[in-house]
């Protein structure tokens, strides 16, 4: 069952692209909305992950948040992608926001948004039989992508999926 509306920040899309698993978003959530700042961030190459051309993906749609005052307010504490993603998620009454950075996750929770990160996305995918195993994907995120996963979170993710 797909969530109604999901908004994503940059990190989950970049991480899933690194794993060649972006299609999981379509299977788990249907359409994913991203704000323009996230699209710009995905279009810039960082060391390692490369760019992600979201315009080629039919299940990711760019939508601009209307309340620019709210974007500016969030932008005092967060990067532009996170600020726009949070504002957009509130405006469209998103079922969830895909976000991994601690400050963005904390603010999303304060705002009453349901937070799902790349790890939660992988857990859902495993539980629905879309991927065979999470352990090698966690290894790749940590070793190749430089994604921080604490030992306790890693253990909990693996416990949740029976690995």
What is the structure about, briefly put?
It is built from nine helices and five strands, in the order βααβαβααβαβααα. The protein is an alpha/beta fold and 163 residues long.
Indicate the topology.
Elements: E1 6-8, H1 10-18, H2 23-29, E2 32-34, H3 36-43, E3 60-62, H4 68-75, H5 80-91, E4 96-98, H6 102-110, E5 115-116, H7 118-127, H8 135-143, H9 151-160
Parallel strand pairs: 1-2, 1-4, 2-3, 4-5
Description of the structure:
39% of the residues are buried. Helix content is 50%, strand content 9%. The chain has helices spanning 10-18, 23-29, 36-43, 68-75, 80-91, 102-110, 118-127, 135-143, 151-160, and strands at 6-8, 32-34, 60-62, 96-98, 115-116. The chain has a single domain (6-130), classed as 5'-nuclease (Rossmann fold), CATH 3.40.50. β2, α3 and β3 (60-62) form a beta-alpha-beta unit. The protein has 163 residues and is of the alpha/beta class. A 5-stranded parallel sheet has the order 3-2-1-4-5. The model has no long low-confidence stretch (mean pLDDT 91). It has 9 helices and 5 strands; from the N terminus they run βααβαβααβαβααα.
Key structural traits:
globular, 163 residues, single chain, Rossmann fold, 9 helices, 5-stranded parallel sheet, alpha/beta, 50% helix
